[in-house]
Structures are given as structure tokens and as C-alpha cells.
Amino acid sequence: MEDIYSLTESSSFIPICVEAIGQLQISLSVSIAASPISAERNQDFFFTDNVITFSPDNSQECFDFTVVEDQTVEADELAMIRLDQNSDRADIPSPTVVVTIEDSSTVSFSFLMDVYDIIESETAGLCVMMQGVTTRDIAVTLSDLSG
Ligand SMILES: [Ca+2]
Ligand SMILES: [Ca+2]
């Protein structure tokens, strides 16, 4: 497996590929499984845990890691993919990789009204609305055009 996988929430899936390095004259199997870190299985990603059988004819297998595109602005989410040996003949020097799901959701901001009429010496309340869902703080800067 590569050391780091990264994909955006909107990019649907990446293949996670496992390669057997060395000469095989018999079949060996390893298990591959995802475990959530901050990403939640079946909510942020789909991955089918599997047993991979390597044989003299088969030295590479790839599995789709599928991301769920939601509408929530949130921190990047992490999941771990882990290989486990089913035989002491299979050596797995680096058994885990981390997959980073980069958030690509947006929220939009608008003023409640297009035009505000104020009489001199009065104060107007400007209302800014946010449309969308966020699990983290987002700041907008209000400034006038006078500089
Ligand atoms: Ca998400
Ligand atoms: Ca999101």
C-alpha cells in the first residue's frame, strides 16, 4: 500500500492497492480492514473488509474506498486501512495507511435585505444569513466601501 491516501469528499472513490512482494509458489492470504479515526464508516466512507489471496498468478489486488459527499462544512476526516497476516509466512512491515477525506462542502452567506434605508442619526442592524450546515466556526468580514 502507499503510505498516504488523500481524496476530496466530492471525488467519489480511490482504489487502495495491495501488492505481494516476493516469490510465491503457494497461496497466502492477508486481511484488509478499515477502521474509522474521525471519519465514520457508512456515513463518511464505504469500504468492504476483505481477505486477499495472493498466489503465483496474483500479486496485486485493489479495493475501492468510497467517500460520501455530504453538504456539511467540517474538518478533514481520517480513516485507517489495516493489513493483518493470516500466516506467519506473510510479512507486513507497514500494516496501516491513513486515508484523508478532504472536506469540499461550502456554505453561503447573504444579507437579509438587498437595500437598507436609514435616516441620519439612526442605526440600522445589518443581518447576515448563512445557508448550509457547518460543524466548525466560519468567519466573514464585513467592510464598507469607503476604505
Ligand atoms: Ca463528511
Ligand atoms: Ca463535508
Please specify the SSE layout and strand pairing.
Blueprint: E1 4-8, E2 13-19, E3 28-36, E4 45-46, E5 50-54, E6 60-67, E7 72-73, E8 77-85, E9 96-102, E10 108-111, E11 128-131, E12 133-134
Parallel strand pairs: 1-9, 7-12
Antiparallel strand pairs: 2-6, 3-5, 3-8, 4-6, 8-9, 10-11
The structure holds calcium ion (CA) (2 copies).
Summarize the structure.
By secondary structure, this protein is mainly beta. The chain contains no helices and 12 strands. Helix content is 0%, strand content 44%.
Q: Mind explaining what this structure looks like?
A:
This protein is mainly β and 147 residues long. Helix content is 0%, strand content 44%. It is rod-shaped, with a radius of gyration of 24 Å. The chain has a domain at 4-102: CalX-beta domain (Immunoglobulin-like, Sandwich). It has strands spanning 4-8, 13-19, 28-36, 45-46, 50-54, 60-67, 72-73, 77-85, 96-102, 108-111, 128-131, 133-134. The relative contact order is 0.24. Bound molecules: calcium ion (CA) (2 copies). One calcium ion (CA) is lined by residues 9, 70, 72, 74, 103, 105. One calcium ion (CA) binds at residues 9, 70, 72, 74, 103, 105.
